[in-house]
Write a structure and sequence with these properties.
Blueprint: E1 8-10, E2 18-20, E3 25-32, E4 38-42, E5 48-60, E6 62-67, E7 73-85, E8 96-97, E9 100-101, E10 107-111, E11 125-129
Parallel strand pairs: 1-3, 2-4, 3-5, 4-6, 5-7, 6-10, 7-11
Antiparallel strand pairs: 8-9
């Protein structure tokens, strides 16, 4: 999905936004969902994400990419993601470590797969490129 100029997609109130599957590119667009819903999320019933690219994307609502259920590999490339407003406090699944549960952020890239030793690890074929602003 590629926007030109001031392209905006607004989703119905109270619903999630754009669900990605495999090899998706989202460029130069604004996606508006309700702040406590997901503006962008992935289908966890596919085995591979392929390459997911988010470039120059502005959202209202959370962005949540999970390695969960059947997802075993892929690459997520994010450059220029601007989340104007999001509220993830209502998410039921939360990372746990050091005796506490953590609230997900406005942007969540989370490996939920477990290895045979029950430790959380990235699937061997899952990687991410997310540049930080200085």
């Amino acid at each position: 999905m590629r926007g030109d100029g001031d392209a905006t997609v607004s989703f119905a109130a109270g619903t999630d936004g754009l669900q990605l599957s495999s090899d998706n590119r989202i460029h130069n667009i604004r996606l508006n969902a309700t702040v406590n819903k997901r503006a962008i999320f992935n289908d966890t019933s596919v085995e591979r994400l392929g390459r997911i690219e988010l470039r120059s994307v502005t959202t209202t609502g959370c962005v949540r990419i999970l390695a969960h259920d059947k997802v075993r590999g892929g690459h997520v490339d994010v450059n220029g993601l601007d989340i104007i407003a999001a509220d993830a406090r209502g998410e039921q699944e939360r990372p746990h470590g050091y005796g506490v549960y953590v609230i997900n952020g406005a942007f969540t890239l989370w490996n939920m797969q477990q290895d045979v030793n029950r430790r959380r690890t990235w699937p061997r074929e899952l990687s991410a490129t997310i540049p930080c602003r200085s």
